[in-house]
Amino acid sequence: MGNEIRITGAGPASHRPEPAETAALRSCTDAPPPSLLLCQNGGWFLLIPEGAETHMAHKDTRPHYNLVFSVLLLGIGAFSLLQSLVVPVLPELIRSLHTTQDTATWLMTGYLLSASVATPILGRIGDKVGKERVLVFTLCVLAAGSIVAALTDSAGIMIAARVLQGVGGGVLPLAFGIIRDEFPVQKLHAAVGLASALVAVGGGLGLVLAGPIVEHLNYHWLFWIPMIMTAVTAIAAIAFVPASPVRNPGPLNWLAALLLSVWLVCLLLAVSKGTKWGWHSGSILALFGGAVLGLIAWITAEMKSRTPLIDMRTMRIPAVWTTNVVAIAAGACMFATMTFLPQFIQTPRMLAGYGLSASITRSGLYMLPMAVSMFVLGVAAAPLAKQFGAKSVVLLGSVLMAVSFAGLAQRPDAAWQVCLAVTVIGAGLGLVFSASSAVIVSAVPPAQTGAATGINANIRTVGGAIGAAVSGSILTSTVTAGHRPPLPTEAGYSHIFWFLTAVAMIAIAASALVPATRAPRSAFDDEPSAAKYARESS
User: 37 — phi, psi (to 5°)?
Assistant: First the structure.
């Protein structure tokens, strides 16, 4: 069971008050309450669950959870900035790197694909060897990728650097796991929700900051600045992020990791190259077939594994799988919007007959309301979920996204129309991302909180990669050679927004199926989550 500390004393347990020695010991260790005291053979026994002694030993030496949280937020912010900093300047990068629209799209797709594969693998390694160690490693890889991207003038090398940066996606499950370990249960939902919202908010800020950085410095600084942030975070993580109190030893399922990579690469190659190679060509059909077979083989391998990358039993929980469907749709909507709406805004009206003829900086300002509303509603999602239920908040956010994309599909030609649409999109994304985390945290056992939220973040990234690839394929199919440089038609952007409307409708349907959950209250809500799990599992 647990370790026993004997406190001497006589008398029946039903008639004896809690000894002063045990009360003092409990106040120093966050040990279980008096109900777990046993009186046996004339002596008092205080049962301390396995793992609680670790918490007792480190209680006074572990940094405050708010300090740890600040370090984690800085790392998440650096990763999320890199998601979108290149987006508003894609036209500039196409010219500077002497490449094409189709190739430049892989600056986003390669990044998201790498993150999709790296997220569950690094999360599992973190559970095995220590989350704080893998967090530092991940931040170092992210910084290295940023250095390579900052130094190159080659499209191929920059895409490779973006793939390296995508490894930084491991920051998300590691951060969620550390939050689970360090935060009191009472504050766990708000912390996970804020961290989830920051992924979207950081992406929105990247759209705003990219223009001034390029215009006043150059595009190389799009990578130098996140590199500096990442390096500072890595040093802070070494100094302030404590060792993981909970670990899950066991072999890494390398077969599952390989199969996950295979089906994701096949799927994203198929959707991104379908227009160029032909949707009915043998290559595209083979890629889709490989994706399906790889997916089936991956699920089979995960279900048979004792130490899966992604626990399929957790995926079958109704609140988890429905929320994950919403995450796929919301991820597709967010990354497609961040990738292609700035290009629409920057399109010169005199040449193309549409667009707002905005500079890079001005297009970022058009996207600023999206970042602001994402942050405001992401923070407001927790009290709204407490008042109306997380399911209602996720459903509302999905509806807001669908309405906004339908409006953009009508080919707006005024700045205020675009600003209104992106504000509502940001509000919807902020509500969905933050409340989705609350749904999952409430639905899964404490031991699976980090894994389940990590899966949700990973699926959001997969959805983003698919959304960006499909939208890029749609837009590339409408590029005309009548302009110098070649430009997509207005219908191409309209088709993208109708596609995203349909995706948001899928999110609405999945949101309606999310079961209503409410987080149970506990007498131990102030206890750190890892210590609480150790007590409950003893």
Answer: -80, 140
